[in-house]
Specification:
By secondary structure, this protein is an all-alpha fold. The chain has 4 helices and no strands. The longest helix is centred in the middle third of the chain and has 28 residues.
Length: 103
């Protein structure tokens, strides 16, 4: 679970900025966040595709198989992380400034 969070963490900032920009109606923030998010997803997907061709991985192995079936505890962790990030946004004047401390 920790490694998955480390992989997804770079996309959380742009995703939160996208949500904030759409909520506040800040078109400039929305555009920048969308562009950053799309580039990040394209880069991660492209790199994963290239590595997938060269590295042989058995998806039914004991390390990967349980991660393909999320349970209630995974949903609870995701909701708690989202609520924590949402509460940290107004409390500290912005989450992007302290992103390294949050991770």
């Amino acid at each position: 679970m920790i490694i998955g969070a480390m992989v997804i963490a770079p996309l959380l900032g742009p995703a939160m900025a996208l949500a904030l920009g759409s909520t506040l109606g800040d078109l400039d923030l929305f555009r920048k966040a969308l562009k950053t998010l799309l580039w990040g997803v394209a880069l991660a997907s492209g790199l994963s595709l290239v590595l997938g061709f060269f590295l042989l991985v058995d998806p039914s192995g004991p390390e990967l198989a349980p991660r393909t079936r999320p349970g209630l505890e995974d949903v609870a962790v995701a909701l708690a992380a989202g609520m924590g990030a949402g509460m940290g946004l107004p409390a500290r004047g912005g989450i992007a400034r302290d992103r390294g401390a949050v991770l």
